[in-house]
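Entry 14. Structure prediction run on the chain below.
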Amino acid sequence: MQRYAATATIAVLVLVGVWIGLSHLVRLSDDFFAPAAEKVVNIMRSGAPEPLSLPTPDERLACAMSRQSWDHAPPRQYFPERPANVNPLSPRHRDGYSNVLCVLGEPSLSPPPRGQRRIRLLHSGPFNYAFVIRIEVNEKMAVLHAARTSPNHMQPPSISRSSVQLTQDQFLSITRQIDEIGFWRLPTTSRINAKVLDGYGAVLEISEWDRYHVIDRVMGGEIRGLDRYLAKLVDIENL
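Output returned:
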């Protein structure tokens, strides 16, 4: 009987020892991986553009002049360099789209607070025509901000603007379309982009607290349906 009791005691001590060892191992694992995870977040956030700020009238004028030639760098950049962007925007497209966003008076799409999201669609067409739709999402509402260049050659061109709070159905339709195309898995650019020499460019950006992605498609590509839906939603032609 004493032998069984001793054996049981030894077994309990072994189990306790194993439990303590596993607890220590888990703690070491957490200590090892936590800095790496924090480093990723820091990289993502430190690579973001400047805090949300509108371009000045002088910057808009300079961007309008630079926009006449895609070879001119804009006064401010709108697209961050991210490690996650395996196929980033080319310098030419990055500068060109930055000029358009600047002319439209758009802010840089900096990371929002945790739990919030920023979505922006830029439609950049020929003959200086362009519109942008930016959606600011928080825990309570989603507000859509739209801006469109007027069909003229003023420098900078006059801009029409509108803002509206989205209904739940409208916002769910937008997020469903984004999910259906697998936005976060898509490459930034497409091989088709290099083959099409004319048409419009559609750029979709999403910025969250810990991640950012952008895709650029000539003639809309995967985001053509979303482009048309948002344009119709705000009646962009009559803005």
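Residues 2-46 form the longest helix (45 residues).
Filed with the rest of this week's runs.
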